[in-house]
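Let's practice the habit of predicting before peeking. Look at the sequence and jot down your guess about where helices and strands might fall. Then scroll down.
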Amino acid sequence: MSLEYRDAGVDIEEGEKAVAMMKAAVRKTFGPAVLSDLGSFGGLYRASFPGLASPVLVASTDGVGTKLKVASLVGDYTTVGRDLVNHCVNDILAQGAAPLFFLDYIACGRLDAVTAAAIVGGMASACLENGCALLGGETAEMPGFYSPGDYDVAGTIIGVVDEDRIIDGSGTAPGDLLLALPSSGLHTNGYSLARKVLFEMAGMSPGDRPEELGGESLGGALLAVHRSYLKPVRSLLAEGLLLGICHVTGGGIPGNLVRILPEGCGAVISETWPVPPLMKLIEELGGVPREEMRRAFNMGAGMLLAVSPRNRERAENLLRDAGETCFVAGETFAGAGVVYDREG
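Done guessing? Here is the structure:
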């Protein structure tokens, strides 16, 4: 009896098929700075930044989390790759950086080339939209570690910022304003709680269309793509209007805003914007306290921008010119922590 790797659960031919299906989409993201092709042991990127006086590289790594479980239930993996790239773009944007290239990692129990290609195709689309290269990645088939049908997706992004343009919140002072940019949904956080409430407690399915969602399917609402804020924020960075940038991810506004507040500076949030219907549905069906909702979800505000009051009008005009909606979410004060000025 002869034994092949496939008998142990790893299909090399399926992996090669997946790579072949990805190549065209990935190559579209390559610009003149990319010096390698798919299949190399490492990706080559020309580190030349003629427009920057003192370039600083900024790196971040993240994953999609249990949003992948929803993708599996719906049978649609075309959005999670975009989620991942946009999430990582926003993370380095919070320090003023523009993306250069992205690297992905996909792990699964049993590789399906079509699924892997759908995930990477979403990454490639987001890389094109954000002006960065999908430089390379790894697909790992790990039977016995992941169950068949399970996928995990993570990625690393590298960006660059001129040293004197780094945004770290240190210039924020009491009395500065916080402008909020709306989210496009849950983004990539809070899905364990959302699935617990909607699928386990309420007994709903992805194909259900609750009245609260205005006819949209539950699965569609849950898979709404984590948006990138690079394009609307870029012009504000160019004019040096931003004192701090907060990407609202796991931990919500309370857990993330404190990361950009200097010592002696707190913030009060006025939650006057409309909370998205999906989040209201989770809150009501699960009996989730508003305080816990604020820690688990973005509550409709995906990014906060700290600006001086004297720059508010200019910042709002630039955002409007970029087609972006914004609202005043609060202000900073002499103190510490993040508080809300009203409940409900």
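How did you do? The chain has a mean pLDDT of 94.
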